[in-house]
Amino acid sequence: MRLKANTRAPFLGATALTLATSALSTNPGANLQAIITLPDLPTPPQPEPIEVTELPLPPVTLDEREGSCTAEINSRGTGCIGQRPNLQSGSFLPDDKHVLASLNFTGASVSSIYYGPQLIIVKTDGTTFSNGDPWKCLTCGVPEGQQLGRSPTMDYPQAFSDGKRALFGTNILDCGPWQLASEDCTAERTHIYPIRWNVQADGSGEGGNIRELRRHPDDVHLGFNAMVISGGTIGQFGYFARLQFNPVPASGIPLTPRYDLVNVTTLFNPGSLSPVSVKGSNIFVNPQAITVGELRGFSGRGNEVTYLGYPAESCNIDVFGVDLTTGAVRRLTSNPEYVDPVDISPDDQWSVVMDTRGSGRQLFLAAMRGVPPIVDLVITAITASVRNNGQRRFFQPWLLDRHGDRGSYSGQKINAAGGGSLGSVNDPQWNGMADPKWSHDGTAIVYWQQMTHFPACGGANPLPCPKSTEPGGRIDRIMIARLTSRTTVPQKPVAPISDTVPWGLPYIPGSELPSPKPLPPGSYTLIGKVSGFATVSLIAGAGSTFISTVAVTYQDFSDDGENTINGSEEVTVSYKSPTLNHADWFSNLTSTGANFSTKITSPGGFHVDINIAKNIFTANGTLTTTVDGVAYLQPDNYT
Ligand SMILES: *[C@@H]1O[C@H](CO)[C@@H](O)[C@H](O)[C@H]1NC(C)=O
Ligand SMILES: *[C@@H]1O[C@H](CO)[C@@H](O)[C@H](O)[C@H]1NC(C)=O
Ligand SMILES: *[C@@H]1O[C@H](CO)[C@@H](O)[C@H](O)[C@H]1NC(C)=O
Ligand SMILES: *[C@@H]1O[C@H](CO)[C@@H](O)[C@H](O)[C@H]1NC(C)=O
Ligand SMILES: *[C@@H]1O[C@H](CO)[C@@H](O)[C@H](O)[C@H]1NC(C)=O
Ligand SMILES: *[C@@H]1O[C@H](CO)[C@@H](O)[C@H](O)[C@H]1NC(C)=O
Predict the structure, then answer these.
(1) What is the distance in A from the centroid of ligand 5 to the CA of 494?
(2) Distance in Å, CA 620 to ligand 6 centroid
(3) Which of 115, 143, 257, 566 is the most exposed place for a label (fewest CB within 10 A)?
(4) Which UniProt keywords apply (predicted)?
(5) Ligand 3 site: residues with CB under 6 angstroms?
(6) 104 lines ligand 1 (CB under 6 A)
(7) Whose CA is nearest to atom 3 of ligand 1?
(8) Nearest residue to 80 (alpha-carbon basis) of 95, 94, 63
């Protein structure tokens, strides 16, 4: 299950009002200058030369039965993969000449060590290991006694900066004093340790379920996410912790050498400012609120944690960074399309994102700019889940400078060149996946893609399935993008940062998870920062304290002085199960100013069902956003 961005629970909090909010509430105009005066941002960069090539992978066997990976297919006897190898590429090793990847070996004879899900390293410089392979398996054949308590998870492989250890899934692979890429690092010299998050006061039992782990660049801290069921639906919290090796645990499962997560901080604090808050009859949008919906990683120097956060504009899903010490929030992207995988360059000056920008997927929701994120109190899980069609992502990799989208600059598409033909570097049927990763010297980016496949094409789906042109018809591939005009930027190692995140909530094993207080139902006024106002009704569901309906009416409302919003919008969300969301949506918005836009639902409204764990869009009725005469339509059902 890959759940993304169901951030409802952490976002529902109307919490203690901080100083910042009360300042705004007593004098809404007081902060006006600070908010609307843009800092002098540097001129956006010109497009730069980028060369994209593909990295080698083990050979493919079409027949995946035992023994089908013959010497004819792989003469070195080092294994085969299938057409769907369950690939995921990860980070570079510190030498920048190797990248980590996990994939599923198949077709081996019973006695072979090249079987099942494994972690490999792949050469990026066109050379081979001494046996002639351009890749090497790190986990194949590791003795059972050296991987006790290992978890079966394999995702997000990331190398430590010593080059001797790698994080994958909820495990750490350790080659002792040997470099992972050296011939000295053999299976006999390799250990695999599980990572355990203690969630019991007495330290007993299994650890908590953790997902989406990200190594901090100081090598001693880790970021991760954990799901929570709240108000009948799923949400999640992000966490920051220290990794502590525990050679002889005294309690908890597994009772084997392991890494414990200690000094854990929940990156949510019910005492902090909420993205939307109320005071008296006023409602406020607080862009400076920290809203770690899903932790996505750390900045290059490790000062910031990156996350998918509460929208800054309605229906527009972005990534943000927050300083681990000061709590200062930075919006990394603002394009109306959807983004979530992000990697910031080692020198913090660039980011690479996987984004639906260019596909038009999300524009029916978000192309009208400057609409405050109010209906988003209930609709975010749905708007975020439109981004995929099941396994098909609409992501491509984009390069952005530190200051992000501005004016006519919305980054540079990394794989823009290539002719667009079947299987080319820019074939839109090859969808970007998570995560893209920077090289340590800042001159290359590695990313991986998956070709659209059934049922996201073929069968009842009107999109015909493309035929893979990769060796053996493989549908996964790893690409390397070289920024050929750049020179190496050497970086000092990142010194260990503090265990303490002052704005977070120290996690005490066994304690109740913090529960965001729901906003009180009622009618409120939202004052535009530049002009006008909106009246907002928050209505709780029958027998519930959670808001299920949000209705907003705008009158000459403008926060940015560029877009003035008029009209009304009303959204009601219900949950058929914790993951099956339904919305009844009525919009009739007009925006004037920079553009003339409308956001309008069909008579009778727009009704959408999405299982946020499956991402299959089905709707009755339409929601259409039109900007300067160009209409952006929702996807067809099931596509
Ligand atoms: C690996 O491939 C085998 C077929 O050889 C398949 O049974 C298994 O489910 C695959 N595992 C994963 C995690 O993809
Ligand atoms: C961090 O965790 C260790 C081990 O549990 C503990 O001894 C130490 O006091 C903790 N430090 C802080 C700042 O909480
Ligand atoms: C927006 O609504 C206000 C109040 O109803 C009206 O006076 C104004 O003309 C409208 N603006 C536009 C551009 O339609
Ligand atoms: C949308 O709002 C406009 C302006 O208030 C109104 O003329 C129009 O009838 C509305 N359309 C619908 C479908 O309600
Ligand atoms: C809105 O208008 C600006 C300025 O005229 C233009 O650059 C931009 O492309 C327009 N936006 C859309 C989505 O058409
Ligand atoms: C669309 O309408 C059909 C027929 O009334 C109904 O069965 C289905 O649940 C509706 N779907 C949504 C998303 O509202």
Answers:
(1) 41
(2) 6
(3) 143
(4) Signal
(5) 555-556, 566, 590, 592
(6) yes
(7) 106
(8) 63
Asked if residue 612 lies in contact with residue 6, where contact means CB atoms within 8 angstroms, the answer is: yes
Q: Summarize pLDDT for 309-365 with one digit per residue, the tens.
A: 999 999 999 999 999 999 999 999 999 999 999 999 999 999 999 999 999 999 999
Angle, CA of 10, 11 and 14, to the nearest 5°: 105
Q: How far apart are CA 558 and CA 90, in angstroms?
A: 43
Rounded (5°) CA angle 414-418-422: 115
Model confidence at 280: pLDDT above 50: yes
Q: pLDDT tens across 57-115, in order?
A: 999 999 999 999 999 999 999 999 999 999 999 999 999 999 999 999 999 987 899 99
**Main-chain phi, psi angles of 571, to 5 degrees:** -130, 130
Ligand 6 pocket, CB under 6 A: 607-609, 618-620
What does pTM read for this prediction? 0.93
Cα(125)–Cα(100) distance, integer angstroms: 14
Which residue from 382, 606, 620 has its CB within 8 A of the most atoms of ligand 6, so it is best to mutate?
Answer: 620
Query: Burial of 628 by CB count in 10 Å (0-12 exposed, 13-18 middle, 19+ buried)?
Result: exposed
CA 541 to mean position of chain CA atoms: 30
Helices (H), 282-375: 363-366
Task: Judge whether 297 and 224 are in contact, CB under 8 Å.
Answer: no
CB-facing half-sphere around the CA of 133: CA atoms within 13 A: 19
Q: Are 534 and 526 in contact (CB under 8 A)?
A: yes
86 CB less than 6 Å from ligand 1? yes
Instruction: Please report which confidence band the pLDDT of residue 8 belongs to, taking 50, 70 and 90 as the band edges.
Output: very low
Pocket test for ligand 1, best of 106, 112, 140 (most atoms within 8 A of CB): 106
Report residue 17 as tokens: 């009002």
- Ligand 3 center to residue 567 CA distance, Å? 9
Q: Which ligand is nearest to the CA of 408?
A: 5
Of the listed ligands, the closest to the CA of 554 is 3
Residue 38, pLDDT above cutoff 70: no
Tell how strand 258-266 and strand 191-196 pair up: parallel
Neighbours of 204 (CB within 10 A): 11
For the chain, the distance separating the N- and C-terminal CA atoms, rounded to the nearest angstrom, is 19
| Ligand 2, CB within 6 Å, residue ranges | 262-263, 499-500
Q: Which residues line ligand 4 (CB under 6 A)?
A: 567, 588
Token reading at 293: 């919906």
